[in-house]
Write a structure and sequence with these properties.
By secondary structure, the chain is an alpha+beta fold. It has two domains: 8-70 and 208-226, Pseudouridine synthase (2-Layer Sandwich), CATH 3.30.2350; 73-206, 2-Layer Sandwich (Pseudouridine synthase). Helix content is 26%, strand content 33%. It is built from six helices and 13 strands. The strands form three sheets. Strands 1, 2, 3, 4, 7, 10, 11, 12 and 13 form a nine-stranded mixed β-sheet that branches. A two-stranded antiparallel ribbon has the order 5-6. A hairpin with an 8-residue loop joins strand 2 (40-42) and strand 3. Helix 1 (19-34) packs parallel to helix 6 (217-226). The longest helix is centred in the first third of the chain and has 16 residues, at 19-34. The radius of gyration is 19 Å and the shape is globular.
Length: 227
């Protein structure tokens, strides 16, 4: 393996790290190993509070980034009910609470079915989407109002893994590129006439690549030492 010349890396991102944190850490590790600057980039970001598979490309393999970004993604998500947050997850404080007594597994399953297939989705304002050249989360953190355009996404598979109502559910989703699971959680709450927000998210697959095949940052650092 020659991480300086070009390799494809499968990393299991830990919670609270940004995707750039991972890129920066691995760039520094590889730079120290070869005593040279190295080109490195990731093929699709993960939110800081999410964990799971992140594909990075180094050297000449950075030309492959686009082909990975277009692949379907699989996630396991835990969604809580009864409140909303501006970021649609736990990055921000609750801004409203809602009743949950009416929730049932049957009602949730019926709502989940309505998401199957292609549909329009509005990305969260707390995201890296750009509005007139500025990142949306910068606008949101200033407290300014703005609206992101809807995009077409596709939900290919939705499976209810665990039901602990009225508190939360755990689901598995297979979705097209550009799908925001935080927006899905928010929209699910609206369909169920309650509030909802994402409390856990793990990306388990990108195309046919599985998180079980990935290394965490510490394991990658130890691998470098053996080369």
């Amino acid at each position: 393996m020659d991480f300086y010349q070009g390799e494809i890396l499968f990393i299991d991102k830990q919670k609270t790290w940004t995707s750039f944190d991972v890129v920066n850490k691995l760039r520094n590790l590889i730079r120290r190993k070869y005593d040279k600057k190295v080109k490195i980039g990731h093929a699709g970001t993960l939110d800081p509070l999410a964990t799971g598979l992140l594909i990075l490309c180094t050297g000449t393999k950075t030309k492959s980034i686009e082909q990975f970004m277009g692949l379907d993604k699989e996630y396991v998500a835990k969604i809580a009910f009864g409140a909303t947050t501006p970021s649609y997850d736990l990055e921000t404080e609750f801004d409203a609470t809602y009743p949950t007594e009416h929730l049932s597994e049957k009602l949730v399953k019926e709502a989940l079915k309505t998401f199957k297939g292609k549909q329009k989705q509005r990305p969260p304002l707390y995201s890296a989407k750009k509005i007139k050249g500025e990142k949306a989360y910068d606008i949101a953190r200033r407290g300014d109002k703005a609206e992101i355009k809807e995009v077409e996404v596709e939900f290919k598979e939705i499976e209810l893994l665990e039901s602990n109502l009225p508190d939360y559910i755990t689901i598995r989703l297979l979705v097209s590129k550009g799908t925001y699971i935080r927006s899905f959680a928010h929209d699910l709450g609206e369909k169920l006439n309650t509030g909802a927000y994402l409390i856990e998210l793990r990306r388990t697959k990108i195309g046919d690549f599985k998180v079980e095949e990935a290394l965490d940052v510490n394991a990658f650092e130890n691998l470098l030492k053996t080369l």
